[in-house]
Amino acid sequence: MIDKLIKKIKEKDAPIVVGLDPMLDYIPEFILEDAFASCGKNLQGVSEAIWQYNKGIIDAVCDLVPAVKPQIAMYEQFGIEGLQAFRRTCNYASAKGLVVIGDIKRGDIGSTSEAYATGHLGKVVIGKHSFSPFAEDFVTVNPYLGSDGIKPFIKVCKEEKKGIFILVKTSNPSSGELQDQLVDGKPLYEILARKVAEWGQDHMGEDYSYIGAVVGATYPEMGAVLRRIMPRNYILVPGYGAQGGKGKDLAPFFNEDGLGAIVNSSRGIICAYKKAPYSDRFAPENYADASRQAVLDMKEDLKNAFVR
Amino acid sequence: MIDKLIKKIKEKDAPIVVGLDPMLDYIPEFILEDAFASCGKNLQGVSEAIWQYNKGIIDAVCDLVPAVKPQIAMYEQFGIEGLQAFRRTCNYASAKGLVVIGDIKRGDIGSTSEAYATGHLGKVVIGKHSFSPFAEDFVTVNPYLGSDGIKPFIKVCKEEKKGIFILVKTSNPSSGELQDQLVDGKPLYEILARKVAEWGQDHMGEDYSYIGAVVGATYPEMGAVLRRIMPRNYILVPGYGAQGGKGKDLAPFFNEDGLGAIVNSSRGIICAYKKAPYSDRFAPENYADASRQAVLDMKEDLKNAFVR
Question: Is the pTM of this model over 0.80?
Answer without folding.
Answer: yes
